[in-house]
Amino acid sequence: MVDCLQLLAFGNSETKQIILELGGTQMLIGFLVNQTNYQKLLLNTTRLLKVLSVCSKNKQALVNFNAMQALSMHLITQSQQADTQSKPKSTASDILNNCLITLRNLSDAATRLPGLEELVANLLNLLSLRHNDFTVATLAAGILSNLTCNNENNKKSALAANGIQILLQLIHTNMTVQKTQLVDPCVCALRHITNRHGDMLLAQEQVRAVNGLNIITQLMCIQPRSWSVIKAVLGLVRNFCSNQLNAQQLRQNGIIEKLMQILFDAYTEIQMRTSGGTNMPANNVLKIDDVNMFDIVEASSAALLLLAKEQQNQQIMKELDCIGFFVQMFYSSIASIQRSAVSILAELATNKECAEVIEQQAGLHQFVQANFCNQYGLLKTIAELGQTTGSHAGIILQHVTTLMQRLQECRNKRQFMMQQQQQFGQQGQFYGQQQQFNF
Question: At 110, is the secondary structure helix, strand, or coil?
């Protein structure tokens, strides 16, 4: 009977709706809970649930009827049975895959659902037991990524279930063989677990303890680039950049150099594909492998901005000549790139040596004068600036104002020191003359 329903429901939205209305969806979950030893029924039930889980109404009903918890019961048992059965494609293996696909389809609708701690632990256990099964590992990692997004309980559960070590091991094993379908969700799950919950500092500490930052930063260098993985890694790196406890390990792993290379590559792609900004795509969307290059520029710039708040990092950026590149970005006709660049420049200008390097950049003051000042030489109002730079106007103007103020403060301090030295020199000369006269 269940097998017949699966054949009727496949590709037929009306049949799926009828099954829901007649209570069939809830009945199927009952089979999962009560018929745990009836493999043939479990196979047909999970196959039908996989079909129903793509229907929006059935999807929400399945979540409400605790399908996630019911499916979780079978992950480990079916995995163990699949390992003991000799056939490469056994019934237990099929049931396991059906459960995982159904859970993946439901997981984005259950991100805030309570009571999924056991499922999170089972998924991590599955990743540990079947890390060599690419399909199973990819599905489990994708589900885990969805469940740990915006759910503090699931993040803490993943941390308690040794999630950091398991995910890092998977990334390390698969990153060099370019298995991006698996690496991407693993990085996303790590990004979620290391941010925005009560134990996030503990999670970051665990990453440091197993030299995880080395693995994470290695992902930034792999060629050819997978921009989907790079985007996920940048979000993860930003979590660590915001915590001072990670500063030393990040520097040891060359984080600034690697972020600058990613920023340069993304910026170059944009320049090449927009003819230097003259052929701007609509809404700042320029995709390579389904990843918006403007998102890459913004994410890498955001991480660099966090790093630029520390004096040692400011010195590294100065020595790497990052400042010249940021100024070139500031000259861009694309407002979002301009905003990213000037925010970093304004932060670097708090450092005396960096401020002097910024001032030495050819054409900087003329560019500000031409684009951000009115006929009287004063900074334009946000309303005036908005006519040319759109929604970024207020933020850009704020950063430009901060930058110019800090450069002026640095200039004033330098002039004051020079005056002090001159006065000291004159006084020294006067006392020397007086001493010579008395002698």
Answer: coil
